[in-house]
Amino acid sequence: MLLIQKIAEHKEAYIEALKKRNFDAAPVFEKAIALDEERRATQAKLDNILADSNRLSKEIGQLFKNGEQQKATLLKEKTGQLKESSKELSITLTNVQEELIELLYTIPNIPHDSVPEGKSDEDNEEIFREGDIPTLDEGALPHWELAKKYDIIDFELGVKITGAGFPVYKGKGARLQRALINYFLDKNTAAGYQEVQVPHLVNEASGYGTGQLPDKEGQMYHVTGDDLYLIPTAEVPVTNMFRGDLLNHSVLPIKHTGYTPCFRREAGSYGAHVRGLNRLHQFDKVEIVRVEKAEDSYAALDQMVAHVKDLLIDLKLPYRILRLCGGDLGFTSVLTYDFEVFSTAQDRWLEISSISNFETFQANRLKLRYKDKDGKKQLAHTLNGSSLALPRVLAGILENYQTPNGIKIPDVLVPYCGFEYID
What we know:
By secondary structure, the protein is α+β, with helices and mostly antiparallel strands. It contains 13 helices and 19 strands. It has helices at 4-9, 11-18, 26-65, 69-104, 143-149, 155-161, 171-190, 204-210, 235-240, 297-315, 361-366, 390-400, 414-417, and strands spanning 125-130, 153-154, 168-169, 194-195, 201-203, 222-223, 228-230, 246-248, 254-263, 282-292, 319-323, 335-343, 348-359, 369-371, 377-379, 381-389, 402-403, 406-408, 421-422. An eight-stranded mixed sheet has the order 1-11-12-13-16-10-9-4. A three-stranded antiparallel sheet has the order 5-7-6. The longest helix is centred in the N-terminal third of the chain and has 40 residues, at 26-65. The model has no long low-confidence stretch (mean pLDDT 94).
């Protein structure tokens, strides 16, 4: 959430920057600034009334002490009127504050200067590519056909149990899935990320804290009886571990990693681009989350990008990195890099990671601050990234590593899964 003081201070610059998102901020900013002025004016009136009420209360006490009952009684009537006025102003102030907060919740983050203009993912900017795209034998299959051929993922059984988008992993498919999770966690902890296991359901405050609510409410599964939400990513519970905290600068950076299943209601269209593992309602993901000082967050972002590069180099999967354009940038993000792995059998790129810097946007919602070396309270910067999302990594392995004799397992995963081929 943007700070209203920053909006007022940088209004024109923010309006121009948000045009990259195709977001017309001018009318929203005008309303927000007007509400803030009303809030401050109401607060000033309330403060004056409370000050007058406190002063009169002291005078009344002194008058009673001096035996001046009549004067004291008159002043008590006046304090009663002030109390009524203060109640009305308090209600007005609460209403204005709530309206302002709800309005600020609708404003997306300010994109970084390096974010390219654009309306959709077609306008994202490729900034890096690495790895050789393998040449497959004639008759190579997409992963959903390989899954059926080797009986390692059962999509129909998932439909029977739950519905579309909830696959069942079987045999070597399940073991390979577990191997990937353990490999990613081990790599992340070796890079200095502390592993945490977190709840898979969060309360409404957590959803608002990281920006999933109210922006993505329709994409989240809601447990209505308990007013809880199934998490769309480990970012939500891990980042909310620090909601409301005032940290000392000496504990930063904080680096966490965690594995969770992820749940997303997002509706998918039909066609090969959403078949099989390409788009699911439940999937596994290993996440990395960082809490940083403001001056260190972009160096941290570069470190996260380099870390995910290393994972894909180890897996020997061809990949590219995209800088997301304004029209494709997530609501809470200042700058996002997407990693995509090339699926040779599908002849297309598959997104497998997003790494984002939110600067103070989430921290302001979370009230997550730290004391700098001078003892001044600062909003922290938060970052997160997939390290990695499993379905499309698994799809890339199945398709790119297929041979006439079976699917070869990447060398780095063999110690984790205990076999070299799926055949």
